[in-house]
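Quick one, tokens below:
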């Protein structure tokens, strides 16, 4: 066991070094291929949906390529190269890092069995194979850009291929099946050695693309490998540029390799032997290379930008354009229903929020006590609304509120600690079920207007659910906590929820099973309601006063929704519970039915007693809240293949030369008449046109010294490329004519 453990430790150490050096080598290949780096630009979304190690690889590549002009952003570069050879780097290399960490954590526990060690080592073997195949793609890509004869032949002598990797993995799998863990570790070490050679060759080929042709020419005057003279001249011509174009991190690595090679033997084969030896983890000089790479990645000068807190997000200009559009649509729907806007403080007195959210009260963010009032960040917008109504003695109020809320939750996909809510609430005495109908209708209108795709609105009644719990034998004191369990049925199976109700909350198995017969009931509202009223379940529910009242309410509501032509999106679902303590009547929740899994996208219900908690009189209320962050995730997903304009710029004023005053005069005239315009001053006209194209600006005014002298302007339509000359004095008139609908 001790020898097996020591062998695993060596694999762990060598794989850890590989996971660092391989990323640096991949960064060199990015520059060698002038790769499009958009697929490698990964940031923490704040919801835990992106693997931490993938983000780490992305961050390391950014550090290495900081300042590079060879590896480019999404507007330039070779998209084909990016897709075929670079787009999987983050996942593949991130998985290797995760597998190394997993093996390391097992090794630390000495008493681990050979079987457990073997499983972790084999998992690492599969991930190493994937890394080797990814690196091999870039070796071949780099070889296609090198003009040195003989280099490809030397590479082929090493017999490195996908087949050699697969054969190595097959041997490891066979050993694991035979439970021969000593052989398994030896086979994985063999695969690791192959991968190291491939990565070393990726470094060799990337280096020769970037600098190696000239280094070889200087070193041996063309001996040891024939070099195309024309290519050498071209490489020399580009050399001056490349010195300043390489990334800050990769340039250090390239210089380190150059220093190493220029101090050793002549000839292509000798240089290759020296190069490959330098990248051999068994070489005495390898530690120096590894140390340098780690220094670059951890240096204060180029270290990654400070992180945002977990569960929070920042939004780039394209995302902000989508958010702005969504908020505009939502506000329009809210105002169509004659609501007024309300704003309340970001934090409330702690006593205002305490006891309103059931088991979720633990998610409230408390602010530090600084010798004054005890305060907490608002958890939602409903409780502050209720406090406002009570505090101001209002008896009726229809309001909407779009703002941030905070919850000390564990971030996960679609779940954040800071996020927006879009709320609409109606407080006051109205005709029975009138406000309930309107808020469900508003939720449907909003989701339709946002055009997110198919969705459903699950609907139930808290009194009906309470009646079910009483009929099933649940003590009234446990109603709210059992509701919290039932509310998890959209994420867990009934068996899991049943286990929680029985083992953690003290219900009998019989009671839990009886609850199961009710909460599995769901279907079209009118049809299911009719069935319940006439069925066995209904006979029990109709004998219960609260349940009968709830069924009568739902009958009125479903008729109104039917006449309003939005009942086709509603599902009557007895499993819907909504965990918040303050609900007293109708409850509902919207769920997206498309490909993007985001959970609930909107919810609400009636809360007749909440406002009374803050004042002397009760004001019945009902409201809805849109899960805007999840809706925006869907909208962003749909917009991926669409052109999204970050600004609404209508015209670019492009001044050829360096005269800011000319640009200031022209653009100010446009701003004065409410034309959305921006300006750019540059000596090259193509830079001005490129800016308009990249920013999706439909029109550009081009003016240089000749145009100024002649009192004219050139007006260009970016989409059609048509260009015409207009009088300087007619600028506003001509543009208004073309911009008017």
């Amino acid at each position: 066991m001790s020898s097996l453990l020591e062998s695993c430790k060596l694999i762990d150490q060598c794989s850890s070094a590989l996971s660092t050096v391989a990323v640096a080598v991949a960064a060199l290949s990015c520059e060698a291929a002038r790769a499009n780096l958009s697929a490698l630009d990964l940031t923490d979304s704040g919801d835990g949906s992106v693997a931490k190690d993938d983000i780490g690889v992305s961050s390391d590549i950014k550090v290495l390529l900081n300042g590079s002009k060879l590896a480019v952003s999404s507007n330039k570069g070779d998209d084909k190269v990016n897709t075929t050879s670079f787009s999987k780097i983050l996942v593949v290399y991130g998985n290797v890092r995760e597998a190394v960490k997993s093996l390391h954590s097992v090794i630390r526990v000495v008493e681990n069995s050979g079987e457990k060690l073997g499983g972790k080592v084999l998992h690492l073997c599969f991930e190493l194979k994937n890394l080797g195949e990814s690196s091999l793609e870039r070796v071949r890509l780099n070889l296609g850009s090198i003009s040195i004869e003989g280099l490809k032949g030397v590479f082929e002598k090493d017999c490195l291929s996908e087949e050699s990797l697969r054969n190595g993995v097959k041997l490891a799998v066979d050993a694991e099946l035979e439970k021969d863990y000593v052989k398994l570790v030896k086979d994985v070490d063999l695969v690791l050695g192959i991968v190291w050679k491939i990565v070393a060759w990726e470094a060799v080929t990337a280096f020769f693309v970037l600098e190696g042709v000239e280094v070889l020419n200087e070193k041996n005057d063309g001996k040891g490998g024939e070099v195309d003279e024309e290519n050498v001249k071209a490489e020399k011509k580009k050399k001056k540029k490349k010195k300043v174009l390489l990334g800050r991190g990769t340039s250090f690595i390239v210089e380190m390799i150059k220093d190493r090679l220029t101090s050793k033997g002549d000839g292509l084969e000798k240089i290759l032997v020296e190069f490959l030896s330098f990248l051999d983890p068994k070489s005495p000089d390898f530690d120096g290379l590894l140390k340098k790479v780690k220094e670059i990645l951890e240096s204060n000068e180029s270290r990654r930008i400070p992180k945002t807190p977990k569960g929070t997000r920042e939004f780039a200009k394209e995302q902000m354009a989508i958010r702005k559009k969504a908020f505009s649509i939502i506000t329009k729907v809210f105002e169509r229903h004659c609501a007024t806007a309300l704003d309340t403080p970001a934090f409330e007195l702690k006593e205002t929020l305490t006891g309103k959210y059931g088991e979720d009260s633990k998610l409230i963010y408390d602010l530090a006590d600084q010798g004054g009032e005890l305060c907490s960040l608002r958890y939602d917008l409903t409780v502050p609304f209720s406090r406002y109504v009570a505090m101001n003695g209002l008896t009726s109020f229809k309001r909407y509120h779009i703002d941030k809320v905070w919850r000390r939750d564990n971030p996960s996909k679609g779940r954040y600690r800071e996020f927006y809510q879009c709320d609409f609430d109606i407080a006051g005495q109205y005709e029975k079920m009138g406000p309930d109908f309107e808020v469900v209708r508003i939720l449907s209108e909003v989701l339709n207007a946002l055009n997110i795709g198919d969705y459903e609105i699950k609907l139930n009644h808290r009194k009906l659910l309470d009646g079910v719990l009483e009929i099933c034998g649940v003590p009234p004191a446990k109603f709210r906590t059992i509701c919290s369990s039932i509310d998890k049925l959209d994420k867990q199976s009934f068996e899991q929820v049943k286990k929680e109700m029985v083992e953690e909350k003290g219900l009998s198995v019989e009671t839990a099973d009886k609850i199961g017969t009710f909460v599995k009931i769901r279907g079209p509202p009118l049809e299911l309601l009719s069935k319940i009223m006439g069925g066995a379940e209904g006979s029990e529910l109709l004998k219960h006063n609260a349940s009968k009242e709830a069924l009568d309410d739902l009958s009125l509501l479903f008729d109104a929704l039917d006449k309003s032509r939005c009942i086709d999106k509603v599902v009557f679902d007895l499993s819907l519970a909504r965990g918040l303590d303050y609900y007293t009547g109708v409850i509902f929740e919207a769920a997206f039915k498309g490909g993007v899994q985001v959970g609930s996208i909107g919810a609400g219900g009636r809360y007749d007693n909440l406002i009374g908690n803050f004042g002397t009189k009760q004001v019945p209320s009902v409201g809805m809240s849109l899960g805007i962050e999840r809706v925006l995730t869907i909208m962003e997903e749909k917009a991926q293949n669409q052109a999204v304009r970050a600004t609404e710029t209508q015209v670019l004023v492009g001044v050829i030369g360096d005269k800011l005053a000319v640009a200031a005069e022209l653009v100010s005239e446009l701003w004065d008449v409410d034309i959305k315009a921006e300006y750019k001053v540059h000596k090259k006209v193509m830079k001005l046109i490129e800016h308009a194209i990249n920013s999706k600006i439909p029109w550009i005014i081009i003016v240089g010294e000749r145009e100024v002298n002649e009192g004219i302007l050139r007006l260009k339509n970016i989409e059609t490329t048509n260009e015409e000359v207009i009088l300087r004095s007619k600028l506003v008139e001509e543009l208004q004519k073309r911009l008017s609908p």
